[in-house]
Design brief:
By secondary structure, the protein is mainly α. It has 2 domains: about 35-95, no CATH class; about 100-175, Up-down Bundle (AhpD-like). It contains 9 helices and no strands. Helix 2 crosses helix 3 (about 65-75) and helix 5 (about 100-115) packs across helix 7.
């Protein structure tokens, strides 16, 4: 015996396919045929473009043009959606929110990356923290905090990475830090 719910669902789906959509009918003379669904998609696309533009501006300010240009130039069909994701959401949503300053966001980011032992990202964000106005002493304090709350091995590695980045930045001088 066939499942009555499945049969009813199939019949309803077939009926829905045959019924004309009320949104796509012909408009009366003098009336516009603006589909609310199309308008909503257009608004979402516009918002996504604005979010992407905000994100790219902040990303460039924090990480520097050279880094961002390298990352975007390396994007291909496989990685471009990821570049869009981080530009729109990390930089366009989170880094543009009110409530924390950029230096405060840098401190939080350094902490998370040190705890997760994300070495390449940590080095990049030590440079970004300098661009955001953190001093080497503040970066040191963040990493001391990491040692207590996340463990000495994580902080030990983070200190080594930060020490290298800070030495490179001191050697390069203030003009190179600002890119």
């Amino acid at each position: 015996m066939p499942d009555q719910d499945a049969t009813a669902g199939t019949q309803a789906a077939q009926g829905a396919e045959e019924a004309p959509s009320p949104d796509h009918g012909a408009a009366a003379p003098g009336q516009e045929t603006a589909d609310p669904g199309i308008q909503e998609v257009a608004m979402e696309e516009r918002a996504a473009l604005e979010q992407s533009a905000r994100g790219m501006a902040v990303r460039r300010q924090v990480l520097g043009d050279e880094h961002v240009d390298r990352a975007t130039a390396a994007a291909d069909a496989f990685t471009a959606p990821f570049q869009d994701l981080i530009t729109r959401y990390a930089w366009g949503e989170i880094w543009t929110r009110p409530g924390l300053t950029r230096p405060e966001r840098s401190m939080i980011t350094l902490t998370a990356l040190a705890c997760l032992r994300q070495e390449e990202e940590l080095a990049m964000h030590v440079r970004a923290a300098l661009r955001n106005g953190l001093s080497p002493e503040q970066i040191r304090e963040v990493l001391l905090q990491v040692a207590i709350y996340a463990g000495v091995p994580a902080a030990n590695r983070a200190f080594a990475i930060a020490q290298r980045v800070l030495a490179d930045a001191a050697q390069a001088g203030p003009a190179d830090e600002a890119e």
